[in-house]
């Protein structure tokens, strides 16, 4: 209807203009012969267009075009009002759902964390792959995070992210966001790698492949897809029966070399749906690396942080966590000077006010560490800002992480001095648009320093934080920060 109305209006105005031109044309200056259609020809064209529009709209020659335009305008207004009413209803439904979600999140964020009841989170990661997590619940109702329910999240400052989900029949739904700084690893001499790698049998310059090495084995002739493949001997010794040999080039842990199977039968089989090869038969298999061959050593020391939301009939619960694989917290007793750590943060929030809202956020954290000296205990403090999420105004949020003592004696952790809880001076403060919210009992933070360099300076800081904004705001988050300067 809008298009028809627009065309009609344009044609009518053009017709009026044409009539005016026709009326004035008799006394005007003669037009040059190459200027196009004459006024009379233009008038005829417009009259034909008006006639066509009349026919399209079902208006007789005696009909009033003005009345038809008014009808079209009224119909357009009615359709616009209906569309606006539908949009208003949809928005009201969304607001109601968001308010309910915000209320559930507020209750979950305000309660004691999973960890307080003995629940734990363990994370494993490989570079370029989705992280895996195992979570335990004191009640025994553990979530089952499956690969098919996982997806990658946008990386943040070198920390890769994974969303994991567990959905139990007639049970709770668990959602976890976990970030890790696992890197691509490095290439090292094969002999060094084989001698130091658990589960690899290395002797006399060769590896004896075992079933547990299946993911490391690769060669073009080996079985693919499914089933077992028997390999014919490629070298006939013509000496002792059963001493014939199968030999092929391939790689083991990415290092090039030669696979040899001597005596008996030589078989290969696909290890499983995740790939890899199992070498078998009655023959003896070995892998001999080429001179100078290098093996890939995966990163075995990395950190993680994240949040875990459990949705159950009884309500929501929210847990934040941080941890490390392959290392322990750095002893800071002998470390002096200062250090700055920057990196990403992530968590859940709820603001239950006149426009309730809740969800998850990402942000940036900056920490300042003063390692003190022999006579003074070190301290660490910082802030979280650059909040991003689906709520307007989050860019004005900031959480102040007040000064905490660095535990001496080699622990490498930081937390409130009193195990019973933080003092008012040690509580976090959440400000919105420059206005501080009142602190609550869960306004606290803490963490640990990890991965020391050759000089003893920790290169990573991980931890968790929570904050209250009076009676209406609740937030829990976790962070991972890298050494970025003094």
How would you state the average pLDDT, rounded?
84
Q: Residue ranges: pLDDT <50 for 5 or more in a row?
A: 1-30
Class inferred from helices and paired strands: alpha+beta
Helical percentage: 10-25%
Q: Kindly report how far apart the N and C termini lie.
A: 67 Å
DSSP summary, beta strand count: 28
So how many helices?
4
Strand % is 35-45%
Strand order of the largest sheet: 23-26-27-28-19-20-21-22-24-25
Radius of gyration: 36 Å
Please tell me what the overall shape is.
extended
Main sheet makeup:
10 strands, antiparallel
3D architecture notes:
By secondary structure, this protein is of the alpha+beta class. Helices cover 20% and strands 40% of the residues. It is built from four helices and 28 strands. The protein has a ten-stranded antiparallel beta sheet. Strands 3-4-5-17-18 form a five-stranded antiparallel beta sheet, covered by helices on one side. Helix 1 runs antiparallel to helix 2 and helix 1 packs antiparallel against helix 3. The N terminus is likely disordered.
Any key phrases for this structure?
486 residues; alpha+beta; 10-stranded antiparallel β-sheet; 5-stranded antiparallel β-sheet; extended
């Amino acid at each position: 209807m809008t298009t028809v109305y627009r065309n009609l209006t344009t044609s009518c105005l053009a017709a009026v203009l044409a009539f005016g031109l026709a009326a004035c044309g008799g006394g005007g200056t003669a037009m040059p012969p190459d200027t196009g259609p004459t006024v009379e020809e233009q008038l005829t064209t417009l009259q034909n267009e008006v006639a066509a529009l009349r026919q399209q709209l079902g208006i007789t020659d005696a009909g009033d075009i003005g009345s038809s335009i008014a009808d079209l305008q009224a119909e357009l207004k009615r359709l616009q009002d209906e569309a606006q009413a539908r949009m208003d209803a949809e928005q009201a439904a969304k607001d109601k759902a968001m308010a309910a979600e915000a209320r559930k999140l507020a209750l979950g964020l305000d309660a004691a964390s999973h960890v307080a009841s003995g629940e734990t989170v363990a994370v494993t990661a490989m570079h370029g792959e989705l992280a895996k997590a195992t979570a335990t619940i004191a009640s025994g109702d553990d979530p089952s995070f499956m690969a098919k329910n996982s997806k990658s999240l946008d990386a943040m400052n070198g920390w890769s992210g994974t969303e994991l989900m567990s959905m139990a029949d007639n049970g709770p739904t668990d959602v976890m966001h976990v970030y890790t700084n696992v890197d691509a690893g490095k290439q090292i001499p094969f002999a060094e790698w084989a001698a130091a790698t658990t589960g690899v049998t290395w002797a006399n310059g060769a590896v004896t492949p075992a079933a547990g090495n299946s993911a490391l084995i690769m060669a073009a002739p080996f079985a693919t897809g499914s089933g077992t493949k028997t390999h014919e001997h490629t070298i006939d010794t013509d000496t002792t029966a059963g001493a014939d040999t199968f030999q092929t080039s391939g790689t083991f842990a990415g290092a090039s070399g030669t696979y040899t199977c001597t005596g008996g039968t030589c078989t290969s089989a696909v290890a499983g749906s995740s790939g890899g090869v199992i070498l078998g038969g009655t023959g003896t298999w070995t892998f001999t690396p080429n001179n100078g061959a290098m093996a890939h050593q995966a990163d075995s020391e990395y950190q993680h942080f994240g949040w875990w939301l459990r949705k159950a009939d009884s309500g929501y619960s929210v847990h934040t966590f941080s941890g490390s694989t392959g290392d322990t917290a750095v002893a800071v007793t002998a470390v002096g000077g200062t250090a700055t750590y920057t990196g990403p943060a992530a968590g859940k929030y709820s603001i239950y006010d006149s426009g309730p809202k809740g969800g998850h956020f990402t942000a940036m954290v900056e920490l300042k560490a003063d390692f003190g000296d022999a006579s003074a205990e070190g301290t660490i403090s910082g802030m979280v800002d650059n909040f991003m999420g689906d709520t307007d105004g989050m860019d004005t949020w900031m959480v102040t992480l007040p000064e905490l003592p660095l535990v001496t004696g080699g622990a490498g952790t930081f937390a409130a001095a009193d195990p019973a809880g933080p003092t008012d001076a040690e509580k976090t403060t959440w400000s919105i648009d420059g206005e501080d919210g009142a602190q609550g009992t869960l306004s606290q933070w803490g963490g640990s320093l990890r991965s020391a360099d050759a000089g003893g300076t920790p290169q990573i800081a991980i931890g968790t934080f929570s904050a209250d904004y009076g009676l209406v705001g609740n937030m829990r988050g976790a962070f991972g920060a890298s050494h970025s300067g003094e």
